[in-house]
Amino acid sequence: MISEHLKKHFIHIVGPENYRDSQAEKLVYSYDATPNYQAMPDAVIVPRNTEEVSQIVKLCNEHRIPLVPRGSGTNLCAGTCPTEGGIVLLFTHMNKLLELDEENLTVTVQPGIVTLDMIQAVEEKGLFYPPDPSSMKISTIGGNINENSGGLRGLKYGVTRDYVLALEAVMPNGDVIRTGGKLAKDVAGYDLTRLFVGSEGTLCIITEATLKLIPMPETKQTMLALYQDIEAAAKSVSAIIANKIIPATLEFLDQPTLQVVEDFAKIGLPTDVQAVLLIEQDGPLEVVTRDMKKIEEICMKEKAISVQIAQTEIEAEALRTARRSALSALARLKPTTILEDATVPRSEIATMVKAINDIARKHQVKICTFGHAGDGNLHPTVATDARDHDEMERVEAAFEDIFAKAIELGGTITGEHGVGIMKAPYLEWKVGAEGIAAMKAIKLAFDPNNIMNPGKVFAKESRKRVVVSR
C-alpha cells in the first residue's frame, strides 16, 4: 500500500492528472496479453520526462515500492503484470521521435513511441528499421527493448538488440546514466547497452534510445510455397539456409493455423494444404531475382506442390498481414490462447516440427504451429479454456515436453517472448544453476532492494526435470 504521505510526494512530482489509483485504472493495468496472470498495482503513474522518472524511482527505492515499466502490454510472458503490487509506470507522455540523424543513420526516440509510427517516419526518409514484431502497430519501442523483440525479418536482419546503439536509463537508485553512442565501435568498459536490452525491466528504466538505421532495400519479392507434407516444408527451411541463401523472411504456417487465419483475414490463403512457407527476399533487383529463382527450385525439390510469387505489393502486404494476424485469429477460437516460442537451431526445425506434432498427440491437445522458421523460432499455440482444468493440465504438460525437446536439440525455452513469470520455472533448464546464480548476482548488484519488476525472470522454485543434453 502507498501511504497518503507518499501519494502526495508522487503527485507533487507528476501532477494530479498523472497519478491514478482508482479501481478502474488499476484494473486496466493489472494484466497484459498473457493468459491467467493478473495482479492489481497500488497506483499507475505517467511521468512526463526523465527527471520525473528519476524522482519516482528514488522514492520507490527509499520506501521499497515495486516498479513495473509498461509499454502497450502486448507481451506474452506476464512480464508487465504487477505481481507484487507497487507502481506501474506508463510512458504515454514520453512518446516522441527526438532526432532523425541522416548523417549517422540513427533515430533517437522516447520509450513510449509506437513501433510502427517510428518505422513509418524513418521510411519517409528512405531509411529502414528492420525489427518488426507482429504487435508493431501497438507495441512501443521501450517494450521492444525490454523484451528484445524479434519479428518476421529477424532471419536476415536480426532482432532489436542488433539496432540499439545507445540508451538513457534510470538506475534503481534514481541515477541517470547514458550508455553507448552513435558509434560503429565502442569498447569502453562493460557493454551495458546490450545488458539492458532484454532485461525485462528488472535492471533499469529506459527513458531514451538511439537506434541504428540502414538504407531501404531497393526491391522486394514475396513467395508462398505450398506443401502436403509438413515435414517437407520444414526441411525446405534448412535446405534454403544450407544453400547459403538468407531470405529477409522465412515463415512457416501449418494447416490448422492457415484455416484459422484465412477465416479471419479472408485473403484467399490455401487451406487444403498441410503447410505453407511465406518467403521474402529484398535487396538489389538482380540479387532478389536470382535468390527467389533458386528458392523456388529448392522448394520444388523438397516436394512443394506449388510455388507462387505475389504479383503486386498489395498482394504481398496481404500475405504479411495475414501472417502477423495469426495470434489474433487463433484467439477467436476459445477463451484462452497460449502461444509459446520454443527455438532451435535452424538445422533442427524439421525435427522440432515433428516433435511438436508427436507431443500434441501424446497429450491429446490440438497445437497450431507457425513462426519464424528461418531463425528456428516456432510458435506452438493452443486454444483452450482455463476453466477446463483437465485440459489445462494436458496443455501445460505438452508445453513442458516442447521446452525439454527444444533444449535437447540445442535450443532454448524462449526466442523472443522473454522469461517473465511464464518461463521463469524453466530458466534453469537452459542456463543451469550456475547461470541462474550469475544472473542473480547482476540483479543484486544493480537493484539490491529488488524494486525493479520483482518476481520476474527468477522463479521461487525451478521445475525439476532431467533434460538430456546433446
Describe this structure in words.
This protein folds into three domains: 4-90, 2-Layer Sandwich (Uridine Diphospho-n-acetylenolpyruvylglucosamine Reductase, domain 2), CATH 3.30.43; 97-215, 2-Layer Sandwich (Uridine Diphospho-n-acetylenolpyruvylglucosamine Reductase, domain 3), CATH 3.30.465; 219-408, 3-Layer(aba) Sandwich (Vanillyl-alcohol Oxidase, Chain A, domain 3), CATH 3.40.462.10. It is built from 15 helices and 18 strands. It has helices at residues 4-14, 23-28, 50-63, 115-123, 141-147, 154-157, 192-196, 230-242, 255-265, 285-301, 313-324, 326-330, 349-363, 389-408, 427-446, and strands spanning 19-20, 43-45, 67-70, 87-90, 97-101, 106-109, 127-128, 164-170, 176-180, 205-212, 214-215, 219-227, 249-254, 275-283, 304-309, 336-339, 368-372, 377-384. The strands form four sheets. Strands 15-12-14-13-17-18-16 form a seven-stranded antiparallel beta sheet, sandwiched between helices. β8 and β9 (176-180) form a beta hairpin. α1 (4-14) runs antiparallel to α3, α8 packs antiparallel against α13 (349-363) and α13 (349-363) packs antiparallel against α14. The longest helix is centred in the last third of the chain and has 20 residues, at 389-408. It is globular, with a radius of gyration of 22 Å.
